[in-house]
Amino acid sequence: MLCILFFAGGYVEITDREMALKTLKYNVGENFKHPTHDVDSPTVLELEWGKSLETFSRNYDLILGADIIYLKETFPDLLKTLAHLSGCKTKVLLSCKIRYDRDVNFLQMLKNDFIVHQIFHDKERDIVIYEASRKC
Q: Within a 13 Å sphere around the CA of 23, how many CA atoms are in the beta-carbon half?
């Protein structure tokens, strides 16, 4: 999906924690080469949930998160980050496996500020995709 957004002319930012940035930059460089598009690669940025959020826009159209719901201790900062990055028109897509009660609890916490719907469930691999949008 990022490739589609990127090559369709969208501005794409890809984030991760500082310790993963070197690998992420390499992967972006390798995967976003296109011989007929003379454009820059997506922007790679450091993002630690709950920190330095003022450096990020609040006008994203789409936020994608895969396997980011896993540590209960990070839930408050993750929720703060999603709330900061999301405007009234932002769609948030979260892909994950719901392994534990804490994962369900995160989704309940998300519903305090977001409207959340399950939009896909791969029963064979037990992977779920949720769509969330801010309550505005």
A: 5
